[in-house]
């Protein structure tokens, strides 16, 4: 499932391979962008990637997020079990990168 959305002037591009992204995860993506916007006002685009690595009992969920800002983009990725906690961890990593870039 892939979808593109314009949220508060920021282009959001979500890509997921054979994974259905529900409304709760979509809302968490929007609130993540709100949180990131507190640290930089110049976000042009956000790309979010959802995928599953491995199979069966060894499967791991992976979330990656690229934030397009003037200068080098920031990117973070996290592996785990559940989408929303992974998204929060990725956003925390991105916030640290944005603070360091200031």
From TrEMBL:
InterPro entries with a match to the protein in the record: RHF-like, RHF/RaiA
Superkingdom of origin: Bacteria
Name recorded for this polypeptide: Ribosomal subunit interface protein
């Amino acid at each position: 499932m892939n979808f593109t959305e314009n949220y508060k002037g920021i282009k959001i591009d979500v890509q997921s391979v054979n994974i259905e992204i529900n409304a709760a995860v979509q809302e968490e993506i929007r609130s993540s962008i709100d949180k990131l916007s507190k640290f930089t006002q110049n976000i042009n685009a956000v790309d979010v990637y959802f995928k599953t690595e491995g199979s069966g009992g060894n499967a791991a969920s992976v979330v990656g997020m690229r934030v397009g800002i003037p200068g080098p983009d920031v990117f973070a990725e996290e592996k785990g079990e559940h989408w929303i906690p992974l998204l929060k961890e990725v956003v925390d990593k991105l916030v640290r990168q944005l603070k360091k870039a200031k």
